[in-house]
C-alpha cells in the first residue's frame, strides 16, 4: 500500500471533501480553514478537517471561530484531530481553549478485497442484518453490554439513516439464540473509495471466538460489492492488534477533542467537564 498516497486520498475524500449523509437537517460546510458538520441533537457536531497550511497565528482564530459557531447553536462539539494535522501544537492549543481530549485511536486502512473471505462462526451463532428499528434495538443491547455505555444517540441516528438513507449504511448483529452478543455498522459515503467501519463490539463472554473478524468480513463483502476500494477504521488499543493481523495498516492517529459549553452561572474554564 502507498501509505502517503492513501493518506492524501483519505484527507481529500473523507475530510476536506466530506459530504452530508443525505439525512434531513445534516450539514457539512467549509468555513474558512476548516470543514465542519452538524445537524439535529442526535447528529455528530464538529470539525472534520483543518487546512494543512494552518499556522500558529491562524490556529487560535480558527478555534475561537468554531467555539463561537457551535456555542451559538447550543451544541457540544468535537474537533477531530489527526496526528499529521498542522500546526504541530494544535492539540495544545485546543486544550488551552477549553477542549477535553478523549483517548487517541489509530486510523487504519485495508484493501477491501483482501478481507472478504468467509469466516466460520461459533456454533449456535448467526448474523442478522439490521434493517429496521427492531434490529437497532438489538444492536444497542449488544453494544451497551460490550462497551458499558449508553447508545441512545447512536441508535436514534441509525434509525433515521435506515429510514431515510439506507444505501449509505449497513449494520449487523450477531445472535446467540434470541440474545444479541455482538454488533457493528458501516458507513458508505457516496463518491468515495472508503467505507468506514464503526461500533464493532462483542460482549465479554463471546470475545476471542472470531466474532470481530466475522463482522469485518461481512461488511467487507458488502463494501466490495458496492465498489469501495478501502475499509477505514478508528481503532482502539484493544482492536488495533486484531486489525493488524487481518491486514490493516496504520496511516495516522486520531484524537477527539470535545468542547462542552459552560452552563450559565457555572464557574471554571469554558468546556470544563464540571
From TrEMBL:
Family annotation (Pfam families): Acetyltransf_1
Lineage, opening ranks = Bacteria, Bacillati, Actinomycetota, Actinomycetes, Kitasatosporales
Q: What is this protein called?
A: N-acetyltransferase GCN5
**Keyword tags:** Transferase
Q: Which organism is it from?
A: Streptomyces scopuliridis RB72
Q: Mind listing the GO molecular function terms for this protein? A: acyltransferase activity, transferring groups other than amino-acyl groups
Domain N-acetyltransferase spans what residues? 125-264
Amino acid at each position: 500500500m502507498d501509505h502517503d498516497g492513501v493518506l492524501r486520498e483519505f484527507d481529500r475524500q473523507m475530510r476536506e471533501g466530506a459530504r452530508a449523509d443525505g439525512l434531513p437537517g445534516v450539514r457539512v460546510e467549509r468555513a474558512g480553514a476548516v470543514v465542519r458538520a452538524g445537524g439535529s441533537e442526535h447528529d455528530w457536531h464538529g470539525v472534520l478537517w483543518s487546512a494543512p497550511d494552518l499556522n500558529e497565528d491562524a490556529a487560535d482564530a480558527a478555534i475561537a471561530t468554531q467555539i463561537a459557531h457551535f456555542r451559538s447553536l447550543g451544541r457540544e462539539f468535537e474537533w477531530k484531530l489527526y496526528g499529521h494535522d498542522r500546526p504541530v501544537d494544535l492539540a495544545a492549543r485546543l486544550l488551552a481553549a477549553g477542549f477535553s481530549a478523549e483517548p487517541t485511536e489509530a486510523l487504519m486502512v485495508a484493501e477491501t478485497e483482501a478481507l472478504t473471505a468467509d469466516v466460520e462462526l461459533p456454533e449456535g451463532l448467526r448474523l442478522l442484518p439490521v434493517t429496521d428499528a427492531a434490529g437497532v434495538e438489538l444492536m444497542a443491547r449488544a453494544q451497551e453490554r460490550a462497551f458499558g455505555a449508553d447508545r441512545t444517540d447512536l441508535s436514534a441516528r441509525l434509525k433515521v439513516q435506515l429510514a431515510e438513507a439506507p444505501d449509505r449504511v449497513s449494520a449487523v448483529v450477531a445472535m446467540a439464540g434470541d440474545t444479541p452478543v455482538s454488533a457493528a455498522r458501516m458507513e458508505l459515503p457516496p463518491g468515495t473509495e472508503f467505507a468506514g467501519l464503526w461500533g464493532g463490539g462483542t460482549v465479554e463472554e463471546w470475545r476471542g471466538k472470531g466474532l470481530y473478524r466475522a463482522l469485518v468480513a461481512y461488511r467487507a463483502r458488502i463494501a466490495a460489492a458496492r465498489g469501495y476500494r478501502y475499509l477505514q477504521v478508528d481503532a482502539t488499543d484493544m482492536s488495533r492488534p486484531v486489525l493488524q493481523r487481518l491486514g490493516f495498516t496504520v496511516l495516522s492517529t486520531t484524537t477527539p477533542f470535545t468542547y462542552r459549553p459552560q452552563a450559565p452561572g457555572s464557574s471554571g474554564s469554558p468546556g470544563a467537564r464540571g
